[in-house]
């Protein structure tokens, strides 16, 4: 090639340079085109985001009426109020527990559903709660956590498990008939006022027995003296329709079977027996003669009614459980999508090299899914900081202060009984400041993904 040809070639602009100049020229000569397309979005952003933020910051500097300037006084009141401090503590619990548990369950479900035949159906079932609104989920779990085992599923299961391993009291709520010779002896037990002797039966009449507890009971039988035994009868001293005599076994009165009787001397149980189907019992006279008879509290303990899920102690964990029920499916779907992009040859190579399933999961699957796990975790953290409706619906009025969170406190301070929009705006600004670091982390992650 001659020098002239080389010179001509070198003087021609490259294709990339021409395209770059054309792109720059297009943006430089017609900026109004970009402005026209961006203007509606910018107007909406300013009206729905920027203006409320600026106004909230401004309003937080004034008192409840909006006329008196108080500076940072609302922020000081926010941190001195016990209810708001409880809300802040609960928010910390929510941010730490709810996203972590939801993400962990989503990871477990996503990994395990790859190995089962009906994995898609399982994913559908787990994801289905996402189709339910927070309001509907709150109503559902308000019923699930109901204290009454006949209505609340949680306590129905819990009571069933408890009663499987612990025998219920035979006659909960029963008590001695007045002037029957039995007196309370502490802890719900009853003891005879005088010592018993082998010469005469020691009868123990009770009242306040639930009709269902004696529906199939036999008629009470009068115990007869027996050599070497202390005998007696325990019965329901009540005749339906009236006409019975107090402290006397009448023909239609029911026996109380299965009651434990203890003979006590000097505070020590020396003998014990259980009443038979006809209400009678027998104790060895050589041990029980001269002792006092005691009916232990276990005979009369109220039926186990389950756990107070929505009480002050457990209301926050209970509501977090309902949140996890809804959002574990969301985490599972995102993680499953990320898992589909994991190179299978890496997993197979690790197994060929002798790695166990736990090692493959911990050292290969989880590190490769780290970007997806961060996305899920950050998304749920932002969502949890705004949690309001689930707490408002599930927590009963008696436990609402114990379950309080910042978003709920913002609503109560701004529109509740003590209307103070200045304090409510301060809480809103503080909540925004809590969300900003999480949003910053998310933005940095997005920028890194774009650079890749």
TrEMBL record:
<feature type="domain" description="ABC transmembrane type-1">
    <location>
        <begin position="88"/>
        <end position="442"/>
    </location>
</feature>
<protein>
    <submittedName>
        <fullName>Sugar ABC transporter permease</fullName>
    </submittedName>
</protein>
<keyword id="KW-1003">Cell membrane</keyword>
<dbReference type="InterPro" id="IPR000515">
    <property type="entry name" value="MetI-like"/>
</dbReference>
<dbReference type="InterPro" id="IPR013783">
    <property type="entry name" value="Ig-like_fold"/>
</dbReference>
<dbReference type="InterPro" id="IPR050809">
    <property type="entry name" value="UgpAE/MalFG_permease"/>
</dbReference>
<keyword id="KW-0813">Transport</keyword>
<dbReference type="InterPro" id="IPR035906">
    <property type="entry name" value="MetI-like_sf"/>
</dbReference>
<feature type="region of interest" description="Disordered">
    <location>
        <begin position="1"/>
        <end position="23"/>
    </location>
</feature>
<feature type="transmembrane region" description="Helical">
    <location>
        <begin position="124"/>
        <end position="145"/>
    </location>
</feature>
<feature type="transmembrane region" description="Helical">
    <location>
        <begin position="92"/>
        <end position="112"/>
    </location>
</feature>
<feature type="transmembrane region" description="Helical">
    <location>
        <begin position="32"/>
        <end position="54"/>
    </location>
</feature>
<feature type="transmembrane region" description="Helical">
    <location>
        <begin position="324"/>
        <end position="343"/>
    </location>
</feature>
<keyword id="KW-1133">Transmembrane helix</keyword>
<feature type="transmembrane region" description="Helical">
    <location>
        <begin position="364"/>
        <end position="385"/>
    </location>
</feature>
<keyword id="KW-0472">Membrane</keyword>
<feature type="transmembrane region" description="Helical">
    <location>
        <begin position="423"/>
        <end position="443"/>
    </location>
</feature>
<comment type="similarity">
    <text>Belongs to the binding-protein-dependent transport system permease family.</text>
</comment>
<dbReference type="GO" id="GO:0005886">
    <property type="term" value="C:plasma membrane"/>
</dbReference>
<feature type="compositionally biased region" description="Polar residues">
    <location>
        <begin position="1"/>
        <end position="19"/>
    </location>
</feature>
<dbReference type="Pfam" id="PF00528">
    <property type="entry name" value="BPD_transp_1"/>
</dbReference>
<dbReference type="GO" id="GO:0005975">
    <property type="term" value="P:carbohydrate metabolic process"/>
</dbReference>
<dbReference type="GO" id="GO:0055085">
    <property type="term" value="P:transmembrane transport"/>
</dbReference>
<keyword id="KW-0812">Transmembrane</keyword>
């Amino acid at each position: 090639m001659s020098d002239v040809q080389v010179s001509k070639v070198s003087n021609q602009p490259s294709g990339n340079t021409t395209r770059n100049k054309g792109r720059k020229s297009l943006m430089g000569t017609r900026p109004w085109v970009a402005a026209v397309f961006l203007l509606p979005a910018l107007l909406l952003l300013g009206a729905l985001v920027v203006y409320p933020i600026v106004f909230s910051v401004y309003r937080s500097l004034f008192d409840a009426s909006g006329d008196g300037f108080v500076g940072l006084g609302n922020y000081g009141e926010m941190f001195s109020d016990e209810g708001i401090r409880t809300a802040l503590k609960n928010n910390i619990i929510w941010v730490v527990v709810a996203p972590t548990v939801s993400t962990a369950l989503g990871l477990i479900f996503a990994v395990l559903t790859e190995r089962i035949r009906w994995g898609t159906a399982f994913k559908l079932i787990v994801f289905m709660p996402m189709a339910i609104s927070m309001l509907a989920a709150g109503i559902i779990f308000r019923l699930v956590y109901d204290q009454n085992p006949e209505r609340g599923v949680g306590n129905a299961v819990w009571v069933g498990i408890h009663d499987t391993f612990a025998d219920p009291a035979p006659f909960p709520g029963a008590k001695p008939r007045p002037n029957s010779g039995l007196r309370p002896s502490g802890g719900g037990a009853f003891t005879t006022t005088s010592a018993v002797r082998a010469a005469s039966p020691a009868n123990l009449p009770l009242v306040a027995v639930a009709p269902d507890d004696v529906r199939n009971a036999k008629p009470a039988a009068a115990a007869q003296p027996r050599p070497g035994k202390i005998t007696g009868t325990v019965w329901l001293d009540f005749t339906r329709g009236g006409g019975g005599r107090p402290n006397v076994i009448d023909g239609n009165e029911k026996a109380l079977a299965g009651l434990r009787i203890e003979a006590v001397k000097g505070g020590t149980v020396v003998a014990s027996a259980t009443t038979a189907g006809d209400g009678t019992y027998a104790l060895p006279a050589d041990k029980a003669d001269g002792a006092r008879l005691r009916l232990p509290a276990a005979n009369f303990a109220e039926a186990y009614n389950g756990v107070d899920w929505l009480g002050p102690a457990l209301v926050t964990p209970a509501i977090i459980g309902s949140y996890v029920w809804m959002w574990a499916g969301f985490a599972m779907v995102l993680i499953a999508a990320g898992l589909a992009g994991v190179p299978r040859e890496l997993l197979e190579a690790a197994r060929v090299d002798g790695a166990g399933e736990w090692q493959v999961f911990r050292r290969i699957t989880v590190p490769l899914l780290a970007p997806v796990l961060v996305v899920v975790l950050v998304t749920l953290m932002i969502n949890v900081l705004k949690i309001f409706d689930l707490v408002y619906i599930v927590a009963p009025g008696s436990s609402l202060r114990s379950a309080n969170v910042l978003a709920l406190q913002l609503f109560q301070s701004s529109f509740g009984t003590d209307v103070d929009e200045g304090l409510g705006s301060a809480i809103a600004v503080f909540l925004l400041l809590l969300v900003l670091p999480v949003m910053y982390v998310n933005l940095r992650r997005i920028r890194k993904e774009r650079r890749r």
